[in-house]
Design goal:
The structure is a single chain. The chain is of the alpha/beta class. It has one domain: SGNH hydrolase (Rossmann fold), CATH 3.40.50. The strands form two sheets. It has a five-stranded parallel sheet, sandwiched between helices. The radius of gyration is 19 Å and the shape is globular.
């Protein structure tokens, strides 16, 4: 494409127009076969926690699913694209299509392991406001997610908060700025200019809104165990992978800190609401978007599998599901 830049490409994928294009691509891919955190806890090794193969972890968690510490009954999934799955592949039976839900998303895997019926109300690009009110997408309108809850629900899972911080737009900005200072931290300088860390402030302001969502869930589903699922490790612990993902090493470290802050906020709100927080960051350390395709749980700018950029791939969703199932075991 003449005159195209990395930023132009990023915007194609990271904006709503990109989501619509991805929807069309996913539908075509599905048709073809038919024709033929949180910081590691003190004393624990991040490498050891992330070393077990995902298939082994999921199998082990599934085998003990009968002992889950949650009453039997319906399960509901709420949240953003990390809950919905965003392609993986795209579920053509889900409505509205614009939410990009996938049958390989972690709520589907958890519900299958537990033998529970699932109502998936999650939707790509959803923020806190979209949980309480209807959300318009490129392909239909998603009703208020809270309306999916009922008094007899036994389990509610959700991942939420990243879209309110505008994390995809932040990544887009950081990629563009990397070309202005490849050996520095131009993105951190941009978001901390004036002496205030704008992203850290957004995380702080999100806390009371998330607390209100958890209170609403508890009121509508009083028997349910509420499980807040954190975000997996997106960024390498050191260095980066410029130009494959054109974000400077310094900004990788800065953004990793923001993700940890977001997960810590979710964990604190979950604890205050007597909900369960699932740390998916620690078990996915070493599986960030800079890793080889066979290893990574989160895709980079150019996905190597059917997933949106900077989102969990099928391996990543399986890792999240394994963490959720492990957290549901009685202690």
């Amino acid at each position: 494409m003449k005159g195209a830049t990395v930023r132009d490409f990023g915007r194609v994928w990271l904006t709503g127009a990109g989501a619509l294009a991805a929807t069309m691509i996913a539908a075509a891919c599905l048709a073809a076969p038919a024709m033929s955190g949180v910081q590691p806890p003190p004393g624990e090794s991040p490498a050891a926690l992330g070393a077990a193969p995902v298939s082994v972890a999921v199998a082990a968690a599934t085998e003990s699913a009968a002992a889950v510490s949650a009453p039997a009954g319906p399960m509901v999934a709420l949240g953003d694209s990390y809950t919905a799955g965003a392609l993986l592949p795209f579920n053509l039976a889900a409505r509205p299509l614009g939410c990009l839900r996938s049958a390989k998303a972690y709520p589907e895997l958890v519900a299958s392991a537990l033998g529970r019926s699932l109502t998936d109300a999650s939707c790509s690009s959803a923020g806190v406001a979209d949980v309480a009110t209807a959300q318009r997408t490129d392909l239909g309108t998603n009703p208020a997610q809270l309306d999916a809850l009922a008094p007899d629900d036994s389990l509610v899972v959700l991942t939420l908060g990243g879209d309110d911080i505008g994390f995809m737009n932040v990544l887009d900005e950081c990629m563009e700025l990397s070309f202005t200072d490849p050996w520095g931290s131009p993105c951190r300088s941009h978001y901390t200019s004036g002496g205030t860390d704008q992203l850290a402030a957004l995380v702080t302001s999100e806390a009371p809104r998330m607390a209100a969502v958890l209170a609403d869930i508890a009121a509508r589903a009083p028997q349910a165990r509420i499980v807040v699922v954190g975000y997996p490790d997106m960024f390498p612990l050191s260095g980066g992978c410029w130009p494959a993902v054109p974000i400077t090493d310094g900004d990788i470290a800065y953004l990793r800190g923001i993700e940890l802050r977001l997960n810590a906020m979710l964990a604190a709100d979950a604890k205050a609401a007597n909900a369960t927080f699932v740390n998916t960051y620690t078990p996915t350390i070493g599986h960030d978007f800079c890793q080889p395709e066979r290893t990574r749980d989160v895709e980079g700018l150019l996905p190597g599998s059917l997933a949106l950029p900077f989102h969990p791939n099928p391996r990543g969703q399986s890792a999240i599901a394994a963490a959720v199932l492990a957290a549901l075991q009685p202690r």
